Amino acid sequence: QVQFVESGGGLVQPGGSLRLSCAASGLAFRFSGMGWYRQGPGRQRELVARITVTSSTNYADSVKGRFTISRDNAKNTVYLQMNSLKAEDTAVYYCNGYPFLPVWGQGTQVTVSS
């Protein structure tokens, strides 16, 4: 079945960087659009970034210029490089297809705090 395993989160100071990884299985990865989503405290889950099968990318306005999504089809893995992190980036981050599938991983917690 479809499975997403996210990793790479942690505690980082404002202005810092993190790189998230997501290993996907059970889907035709190289033929799938992929996305990174996040859910902050008391907020709904939102799309942060997405990447097409041809590696075209699109970002939420709140992260544009700071985050970069990429993919490695040989490893069935999607990445999210996050730079210049802000307190408001604190959330649990998930990957999924784009459009998303009705299966979610456990996510990885990102906390931005001094």
In brief, what are we looking at here?
By secondary structure, the protein is an all-beta fold. It contains no helices and ten strands.
Sum up the structure in keywords.
mainly beta, six-stranded mixed beta sheet, single chain, 114 residues, 0% helix, 10 strands
Q: What does this molecule look like?
A:
This protein is mainly beta and 114 residues long. 0% of the residues lie in helices and 48% in strands. It has no helices and 10 strands. The chain has strands spanning 3-7, 10-12, 18-25, 34-39, 46-51, 57-59, 67-72, 77-82, 91-97, 108-112. A 6-stranded mixed beta sheet has the order 2-10-9-4-5-6, with no helix packed on it. Strands 1-3-8-7 form a 4-stranded antiparallel beta sheet, with no helix packed on it. Strand 7 and strand 8 form a beta hairpin. The protein starts with a strand and ends with a strand. 32% of the residues are buried.
